[in-house]
Structures are given as structure tokens and as C-alpha cells.
Amino acid sequence: MTLFKKPSISVTDQISLLQNRGLNIQQPKRAEKYLEVVSFFRLSAYMRPFQKSERQQETEHLFKDGVEFKQIVDLYAFDRELRLLIMDAVERVEVAIRATLNNVMGIKYQTEAECSGSHWYLNENLFKRTYQHKRLLKEVEDKQAKEFNDLQRDIKKIERSSTSAEIKQQRIERRVRESYPRFYHRTYETPRLMPG
Q1: Of 32, 26, 27, 30, which Cα lies nearest the Cα of 12?
Q2: What is the mean pLDDT of each run of 10 residues along the chain (196 residues)?
Q3: Coiled-coil regions in this chain (predicted)?
């Protein structure tokens, strides 16, 4: 491995460097604004498909003829949009699987015990021995505690405000209902963790 020795340079110098490497930049000021918020290094991965292969280059990182800065920005934007679409789809699948699992397990293990119904996941015996059940419970507990701490902070801010007691109470209730972990922790004592 080699030591990274590239010096930091201003955004204006980054534009000059790209132009010296053969990149066409029609609107340098606009490109500067883009580099200010995205960064040269983040964008550099999207430059590679537009650069000459190492065999074709006499110096490093030269661009193929006719390449525009806009093409690199468009590729970056496409990648960002694709990533958002994929994450949205993955989240929908995750939520559907969790809902199905909870709907089936909650009914199947409905008893009078504390670890039943929608709290089925609290029963360690329903998991393989190799499953890290305590870690699952810790993650749920941490999420619930974080949300409740955030709620307590919000309540203190609301109580310090100069609005009427009725408005304060409405705002607190709205904050409580913003997330289920907050609502559950504030409303129920047993079981201590929210349903699955």
C-alpha cells in the first residue's frame, strides 16, 4: 500500500484540474456549487467510466474526448435515485415480512402469559438456541428508550414555551403519538417492551 499524498485544493482549483484533464465544463460556477455540496472525492467514482484507460493515458485521470461535467452529474443523480428506489422497495418487503410474521406468531402463541400474542417475540423458547435473543431484546429496548428520551426532551421544551396549558397538552399528545415506541413506553407498564 502507498501513502495518500494528494493535497487538498480549493473547489476553484478542482474545476481547473478537471478541465486540464480534458473534462468539458460549460458552466464552471455551477460546477463549483455542485462540488461544494457533493465533494470531489464522492464524485470521482462517477468520473471513472468517462476517463481513458490507464494504457491510453500519458498522465493520470484524463477524460475521453467530448465528456461533459453534466454526464458525470447525471450518472451520480441516477445512482442516487436508484439507491432510493431500492431502499424503498427493501423497506416495503421488510415491513410486509415483519407484519406477516407477527400476525401468524401473535395468533399462534396467544395465551394468558406475558410473552404471548403480539409480545410472542419475548419468549426465548420460540427461537433457535443459536439465535441471539438477548441482542434482539436489547435492540428493541434501546429503540424504545431512545424514543422516550427524545419525547422527554420535547416535553421539557413544550413546557418551557409561553403558550396556554391546553395548547401545551395538545402538543405533548401529538409528540407522544408521533411514534409507537414513545406511545407504548408512556402508556403501558407491562410488558415493558412494545409488541413485535
Answers
A1: 32
A2: 84 95 95 94 94 70 94 97 97 95 92 83 93 95 93 93 92 91 89 89
A3: 141-168
